[in-house]
Amino acid sequence: MKRRLLTGNGAAAWGARLANVDYVPAFPITPQTEIIETLGSWIDSKEMAGRMVTLESEHSMVTAAGAAAATGVRVFTATSSQGLLYAMEMLYTVAGWRAPFVMVNVSRGLSAPITLEPDHNDILAARDSGFLQIHAATCQEVLDSVLMAYRLSEDARVRLPVIVNLDGFYLSFTREPVEVPKEDKVLSFLPPFDPENIRFRASTPISQAVAVLGGGPYSYFRYETHLAALNALSVFDEISVEFGRFFGRSFDAVEAYRTEDAEFVFVMMGSFATKAKEATDRLREAGWLVGLVRPKLFRPFPKEHFLKLLKGKKGIAVIDQNISMGKGGVLYTELASVLYGSLDDGPVMASFIGGLGGRDISSEEFFEIAKVIRRAAEEGKAPPPRLLYTEEELREMRKLQVIANAERNQAGKRVGKKDE
Predict the structure, then answer these.
(1) Residues of 217-252 as b/e, b for ≥16 C-beta within 10 angstroms?
(2) Quick one: average pLDDT of 290-298?
(3) Among candidates 73, 72, 12, 22, which has minimal Cα distance to 48?
(4) Which CATH architecture best describes the domain 2-247?
(5) Angle of CA points 171, 124, 329, to nearest 5°
(6) How many helices (H) and strands (E) does the chain have?
(7) CA distance 102 to 205
(8) What average pLDDT does range 299-326 have in this prediction?
(9) Domain spans, the chain
(10) 3-state secondary structure the chain
(11) What is the C-alpha separation between 189 and 20, in angstroms, rounded?
(12) pLDDT per residue over 81-101, tens digit each?
């Protein structure tokens, strides 16, 4: 292996290059564009085989990706934020085609208001589409996740597209040392795409739910897709073991950090979980029995992994970098549905919304979260959900509101004088 200093975007491009992709339908969007630019330069210089085509929109891009995968070629593409939402119609469609390919999403907060910094509302909007989801926290995990995603997507027991997600700016443009494996070793782990049972051929027509008539056939195909996604749980575990054997790095569906003797656990995903890991170390130094549980695989949801890791814990603090309007944190809701009725004397759960639009989560806030969940466990009652937000931030917002109101009033006075 060769160590390179790569951005998260660069690591994603290297994953596609090492996977020997045949086709890259593309459309640029911040902060994902670097991935396409890197792949385009390699293809143009003949360092990488394959063909790149720039489409007129993300909707067309995903359509082209699904159609190409259905013909038996290995496909890679990437998008972000509003682009992912613009393609949403086709996410459901190509998953229904059972077209296996990999798409990287570089998370960015959604409008309105507009931001270029990350949160997870874009990727979690796609959680019911049929795409599987792998969430990376480091640049190394981005590269590894792309290789793992192809094995998972193309497995005959799965045959579904996969999204690999990384956080915009915090990871997409952050350079970290990344071990780039040799091509021959990757080829042993990830052989060429075998399109058996997926490729459309006029001589041997097969049914892939391109068109159905009525609720009966529709129900059948949709549930078959659901079962295929569930199959991905055991398939992912198998691939993880093999990945470790080839490359010497573990890649479990759910990461457990210092959880063996932990009484209280942080649960979060994405690059901000590295902040929780550091906070865990500091709290341990202070004598707190705290750990971290981070799902890498979000679809399918790794229920059994969570039950095993959270059994016997007193309290769980779920920190969501997203918000489902009218409901709250998505990860909190998903995890609550898993734990309900599954663990005797289950832990108290607390929901925190943090990191929206790239807002930082400080060490002090992790300490406050730990205090809240410990107090809740002692009282045996879950605290109300809360937004991570400081008094100083609130004061600044109040100042902006006062200024805006003053400007509005002044503009109203000017209009009144003109009318006179």
Answers:
(1) eeeebeeebeebbebbbebbeebbeebeeebeeebb
(2) 98
(3) 22
(4) 3-Layer(aba) Sandwich (3.40)
(5) 100
(6) 14, 15
(7) 25
(8) 96
(9) 2-247, 254-389, 391-420
(10) CEEEEECHHHHHHHHHHHCCCCEEEECCCCCCHHHHHHHHHHHHCCCCCCEEEECCCHHHHHHHHHHHHHCCCCEEEEECHHHHHHCHHHHHHHHHCCCCCEEEEEECCCCCCCCCCCCCHHHHCCCCCCCEEEECCCHHHHHHHHHHHHHHHHCCCCCCCEEEEEECCCCCCCCEEEEECCHHHHHHHCCCCCCCCCCCCCCCCCCCCCCCCCHHHHHHHHHHHHHHHHHHHHHHHHHHHHHHHHHCCCCCCEEEECCCCCCEEEECCCCCHHHHHHHHHHHHHCCCCEEEEEECEEECCCHHHHHHHHCCCCEEEEEECCCECCCECHHHHHHHHHHCCCCCCCCEEEEEECCHHHCCCCHHHHHHHHHHHHHHHHHCCCCCCEECCCHHHHHHHHHHHHHHHHHHHHHHHHHHHHHC
(11) 12
(12) 999 999 999 999 999 999 999
Same CATH fold assignment for domains 2-247 and 254-389: yes
Model pTM score: 0.93
Residue 3 — φ and ψ, nearest 5°?
A: -85, 130
Report the length, in residues, of the chain: 420
Of the listed ranges 113-122, 191-200, 236-245, the one predicted with least confidence: 191-200
Nearby residues of 381 by Cβ (< 8 Å), 6 or more positions away: 348
CA distance 293 to 258: 9
E runs forming strands in 210-306: 254-257, 264-267, 290-295, 297-299
CATH of domain 254-389: 3.40.50.920
